[in-house]
């Protein structure tokens, strides 16, 4: 069927296939990232918003993979219906990604309060569940206390405050407080998400244009 396509349309066909193949891998990567985040995130209500963001990542990643696969099939089979469907779904995904970016931004900005709640609960109750959450945060982000090690008000600190994980004192503890560590993380994520969002939007708009251009050519040929 491709023999009837003009040279430019044939080029678009293969570019669209390549674009969707890469896009499907990208969607699969987002899906895996979301799954890993869900399985490794802390099981505590104070940081439940972070887990919810990973769940949204799973949904969006899966949707991207399915839609990209649809685009691949539409390009290979030269199906006007599949290509138009792909373009409409891709536009829908762009809208969903904007919503996702807003959700993640809002949740990230509220994580500081969640971290403070986790630490204050651990200091007040000192039960196994609260300390497990604190140990996870301190070990993962190499930080100690909310502002610094003095938060614990003792010379004997939780082992997660030190890299060697034993006999932890203020002298060998991490110097960065966990509130500051999370602020740095949020800023880094904000820059990374912004750059990725812009690049992704450009690629997606090009994908929509390719799909509609190829669909128009196929319709012209009466297929």
UniProtKB/TrEMBL annotation:
UniProtKB keywords: Disulfide bond, Membrane, Transmembrane, Transmembrane helix
GO cellular component: plasma membrane
Cysteines paired by S-S bonds: 143-178, 144-161
Subcellular location(s) per record: Membrane
Transmembrane intervals: 12-34, 54-76, 83-106, 193-215
Topological type in the membrane: Multi-pass membrane protein
Keyword Transmembrane: yes
Family: Belongs to the tetraspanin (TM4SF) family.
Official protein name in the record: Tetraspanin
């Amino acid at each position: 069927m491709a023999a009837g396509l003009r040279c430019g349309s044939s080029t678009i066909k293969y570019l669209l296939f390549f674009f969707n193949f890469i896009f499907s891998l990208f969607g699969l990567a987002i899906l895996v990232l979301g799954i890993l985040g869900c399985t490794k995130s802390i099981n505590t209500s104070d940081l439940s918003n972070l887990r919810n963001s990973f769940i949204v990542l799973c949904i969006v990643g899966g949707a991207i993979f399915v839609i990209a696969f649809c685009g691949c099939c539409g390009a290979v089979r030269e199906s006007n219906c599949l290509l138009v469907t792909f373009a409409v779904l891709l536009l829908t995904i762009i809208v969903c990604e904007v919503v996702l970016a807003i959700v993640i931004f809002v949740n990230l900005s509220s994580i500081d309060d969640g971290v403070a709640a986790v630490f204050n609960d651990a200091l007040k109750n000192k039960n196994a569940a609260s300390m497990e959450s604190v140990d996870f945060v301190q070990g993962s982000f190499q930080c100690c206390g909310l502002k610094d090690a003095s938060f614990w008000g003792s010379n004997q600190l939780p082992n997660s405050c030190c890299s060697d994980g034993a006999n932890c004192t203020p002298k060998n503890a991490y110097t960065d407080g966990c509130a500051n560590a999370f602020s740095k993380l949020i800023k880094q994520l904000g820059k990374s998400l912004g750059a990725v969002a812009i690049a992704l939007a450009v690629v997606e708009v090009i994908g929509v244009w390719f799909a509609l251009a190829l669909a128009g050519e196929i319709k012209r040929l009466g297929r």
